[in-house]
């Protein structure tokens, strides 16, 4: 049958609007902090002055960090968890260096005034001045979290362990705020300054509480999700069908994912991210996963009727971000699951390029062929060894000669995704038309 009529392109891109808004928030708050700092009065010692300023910006970044990981639906749908998490990582490294600079500058400054060695100057206030010891202790979890977030450490650590270590960052937030209340001169310099910092430290943790606790609990109490069927797709791929109440009111879109937690005795504590492999129809949800680790492998043993706790939907890999009438989809391996769901929702002409080592490894290939036939789409299955690079500018250009006039959605292993993004740049596809989703979190 012919493809549905194409949706009109948007004049304002949701990602650009959200990104600009998110940039304005820290910039405006930085201006406020500078004004409060100037009005609080300056120290005669330049090191102490710089130390206080780095401490204030560190407090501001710490609050901004919480906003980035709050998983607020409006931001997540427009920017995606991948992008927000990446920003969170780099802001985190900046925060670590600001806090280290704060400690070093303030300690050195006061040591020079007292004509004491810096270590002695650090130890004395930490044991006598209220709040200083909390700051010293707060720096430790920030340093640990920063260390495990480095790429070489992250690659060697299980996702669950990495996530557990990050929970200690909340301890640092509490300690840092109590330190600011106890000894921060800018905090008490005026009623407005006190109100500003209390509001900032109330809104940032409040956003985390709302996005990561209150909203998931509310949705799961409302929808009461349960496993309806477990369908093996191949020896190492399984689909899980989930039903519940009022699913037509769950704001999920094709291409998004949930953090799924099966409420069984041995798996209730572990959440794994899996994409929807079919467009939500208001009656059920389907996820399809390949056995890449304990979490995904355990799906095959789920029993019908098992209660499920799902956090989400998350992700910006949706038709919300389309800018052109027609689309090129590029999938690799199990990355075809969100692409398969997205293919149901897309309008206009669609070209799908599916990269696998062998055709037998292609996930949901029969469904993709059926969808392509029904919607008048073109499907290319590209096979070959992993070391080969069959998705360069030449092959992609031949699959979609008009790629520059299409939106391009890419989902697959990191190496393949990076190669495709390079090829698209060489083909001259505008950056605003390229939408990529990492598929490396599920374990």
TrEMBL record:
<keyword id="KW-0001">2Fe-2S</keyword>
<keyword id="KW-0274">FAD</keyword>
<dbReference type="InterPro" id="IPR013130">
    <property type="entry name" value="Fe3_Rdtase_TM_dom"/>
</dbReference>
<dbReference type="InterPro" id="IPR039261">
    <property type="entry name" value="FNR_nucleotide-bd"/>
</dbReference>
<feature type="transmembrane region" description="Helical">
    <location>
        <begin position="195"/>
        <end position="215"/>
    </location>
</feature>
<feature type="domain" description="FAD-binding FR-type">
    <location>
        <begin position="220"/>
        <end position="320"/>
    </location>
</feature>
<feature type="transmembrane region" description="Helical">
    <location>
        <begin position="165"/>
        <end position="183"/>
    </location>
</feature>
<keyword id="KW-0560">Oxidoreductase</keyword>
<keyword id="KW-0479">Metal-binding</keyword>
<feature type="transmembrane region" description="Helical">
    <location>
        <begin position="90"/>
        <end position="111"/>
    </location>
</feature>
<dbReference type="InterPro" id="IPR001433">
    <property type="entry name" value="OxRdtase_FAD/NAD-bd"/>
</dbReference>
<feature type="transmembrane region" description="Helical">
    <location>
        <begin position="46"/>
        <end position="69"/>
    </location>
</feature>
<keyword id="KW-0408">Iron</keyword>
<keyword id="KW-0285">Flavoprotein</keyword>
<dbReference type="Pfam" id="PF00175">
    <property type="entry name" value="NAD_binding_1"/>
</dbReference>
<dbReference type="Pfam" id="PF01794">
    <property type="entry name" value="Ferric_reduct"/>
</dbReference>
<protein>
    <submittedName>
        <fullName>Ferredoxin reductase family protein</fullName>
    </submittedName>
</protein>
<feature type="transmembrane region" description="Helical">
    <location>
        <begin position="131"/>
        <end position="153"/>
    </location>
</feature>
<dbReference type="InterPro" id="IPR050415">
    <property type="entry name" value="MRET"/>
</dbReference>
<keyword id="KW-0472">Membrane</keyword>
<dbReference type="InterPro" id="IPR017938">
    <property type="entry name" value="Riboflavin_synthase-like_b-brl"/>
</dbReference>
<keyword id="KW-0411">Iron-sulfur</keyword>
<dbReference type="InterPro" id="IPR017927">
    <property type="entry name" value="FAD-bd_FR_type"/>
</dbReference>
<keyword id="KW-0812">Transmembrane</keyword>
<keyword id="KW-1133">Transmembrane helix</keyword>
């Amino acid at each position: 049958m012919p493809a549905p009529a194409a949706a009109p392109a948007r004049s304002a891109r949701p990602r650009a609007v959200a990104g600009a808004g998110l940039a304005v928030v820290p910039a405006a708050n930085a201006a406020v902090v500078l004004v409060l700092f100037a009005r609080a009065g300056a120290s005669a010692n330049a090191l102490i002055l710089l130390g206080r300023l780095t401490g204030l910006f560190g407090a501001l970044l710490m609050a901004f960090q919480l906003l980035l990981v709050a998983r607020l639906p409006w931001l997540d749908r427009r920017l995606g968890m991948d992008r927000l998490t990446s920003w969170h990582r780099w802001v985190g490294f900046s925060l670590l260096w600001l806090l280290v600079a704060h400690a070093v500058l303030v300690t050195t400054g006061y040591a020079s005034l007292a004509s004491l060695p810096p270590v002695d100057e650090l130890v004395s206030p930490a044991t006598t001045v209220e709040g200083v010891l909390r700051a010293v202790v707060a720096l430790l979890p920030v340093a640990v979290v920063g260390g495990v977030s480095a790429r070489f450490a992250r690659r060697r650590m299980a996702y669950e362990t990495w996530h557990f270590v990050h929970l200690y960052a909340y301890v640092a937030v509490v300690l840092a705020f109590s330190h600011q209340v106890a000894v921060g001169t800018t905090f008490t310099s005026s009623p407005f300054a006190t109100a500003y910092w209390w509001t900032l430290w109330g809104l940032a943790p409040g956003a985390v509480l709302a996005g990561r606790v209150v909203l998931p609990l509310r949705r799961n109490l409302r929808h009461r999700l349960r496993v309806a069927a477990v369908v093996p797709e191949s020896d190492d791929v399984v689909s899980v069908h989930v039903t519940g109440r009022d699913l037509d009111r769950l704001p999920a879109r094709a291409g998004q994912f949930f953090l799924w937690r099966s409420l069984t005795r041995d798996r209730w504590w572990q959440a794994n991210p899996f994409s929807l492999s079919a467009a939500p129809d208001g009656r059920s949800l389907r996820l399809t996963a390949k056995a890449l680790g304990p979490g995904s492998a355990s799906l095959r043993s789920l029993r019908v009727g098992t209660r499920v706790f799902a956090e989400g939907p998350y992700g910006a890999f949706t038709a919300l971000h389309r800018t052109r009438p027609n689309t090129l989809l590029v999938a690799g391996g199990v990355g075809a699951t969100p692409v398969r769901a997205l293919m149901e929702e897309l309008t206009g002409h669609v070209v799908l390029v599916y990269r696998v080592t062998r055709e037998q490894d292609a996930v949901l290939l029969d469904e993709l062929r059926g969808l392509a036939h029904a919607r008048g789409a073109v499907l290319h299955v590209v096979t070959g060894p992993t070391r080969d690079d069959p998705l360069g500018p030449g092959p992609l250009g031949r699959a979609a000669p008009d790629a520059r006039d299409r939106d391009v959605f890419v989902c697959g292993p990191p190496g393949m995704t990076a190669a495709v993004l390079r090829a698209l740049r060489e083909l001259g596809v505008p950056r605003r038309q390229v939408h990529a989703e990492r598929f490396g979190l599920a374990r």
